[in-house]
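This week, study the protein below.
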Amino acid sequence: MDPQTNIDNVLQRKQKLTNVVIGFIFLLSGIEYAVILPTVWMYLQSLGAQPFFLGLVLSAFSLTELLSGPVFGYWSDRTGQTKKVILFSNFFEIAGNFMYFVGISKWFLLGSRLVAGVGAGAGASIFGYLTRYSSSKERVPVFAMAMACRQAGLLIGPAFNVFLRYCTFQLGPFHVDKFSAPGIFMCVLWTLMQFMVIFMFYDLPVNPSEPQHQEHEPLLKQTNIESPLYGAVNCTQEPSSDQDDFLNKENAATLSSIPTMGDHSHTMSMMGLLQEAVVVLLSAQFVTFFNQTALETLVTPLAQAYLGFQDLQNSLLYFLCGIEMLIGFLVVRTISRCTSDRLLLAFGLIICNISCIWCLVFLAKPKGGYGLLLTEFVVGVFLQVLGLPFLSVAQVSLFSKITSEKTQGFNHGLRRSVGGLATILGPLWAAGLTQDLYIMLGVMMGLLLLITVMVCLSYKQLVEPATSEDRSS
């Protein structure tokens, strides 16, 4: 077999194994959320916690993820070693879930979610990795599948709770029950994930000049800086030795004038984050997550007050919502090949606006019989869930295309931090206004209208910048 073919096969195999690991990381993040959330309040009650402590514990995870995301993203950008970032961050997931299992006090439980949240910050590095190793056309399908894996974890998680709730045995000095079982269960899964990362994750070289695949087709196109240099040293006329020395000196001078990643790339990235399109997308990220988590907080008490839903009905509702969202991500993955990111974003915004208007009209002060109330409630939830996959994937994809490729880890860390801030503020806003839904939903509607206007005014800017090849053609 041709040696070049062998190299290509090895690279493809390594890339597939890496993709599998990434899929499992997102899957575990969804499972963790699904197995801990149902019992965390009862766990806190058993430790003598007050109701407000539930909000602290749920926000703790988002808080440390918000802070650690840009740090891990910056680390992976500087070193190009996403594997080490994931291995390091997973130790926090392991330690945090073990602390949750031990659960000696409510404060220890709070600390466990703070520690585990640090580990979740590696998601920024993973999104940066996916950006570097996918073309612009592949970006939406790749991100959609990553998000679909997390959604699958959210659906699988409740199934694990079926047997975790019956756990009652002694593990050394610790007693395992239905409250602590999710902690040790996730601790084991994240430990197994460490071995998958060690043996199956590869930091493949992106630069085609690297020796691993010197003659291999680059996974990503050359940058605008590399292209003229490549043309300069590969001219049709063979240079003489004097010309060759001159070109080498010129190229060395040119290369030395290019800012190194450690010196200037993140500074330039911060400047680039101030451009109009980036501000719009980060604002859309905040509004989307703020409204989503606010409505998630509202759904349970509203369903209980007007429809008499209990644990079983709520579990079934969340399961059906998860199925809808998973299907939505797969639909986005399919249609993204024949439409643009900004059209997906616009469609998602339209659906979310319709959903918020529906909730304002029919759910702020529900009237009618049980059947009518159930219909109004289900339609409102269905519309809200329907728009999320389009908004989420389009935002991430567009953001990755209009920001610097060299600092994608840091960029996604900042983006996820904005989303994390929204997931902290959204539930707090909703929890304080469950008795005054017109104000609560009215502010959410106002935010949606604001971001819709911003997207309309900046619509021409929400597109990937043209490359030198595009301009020449």
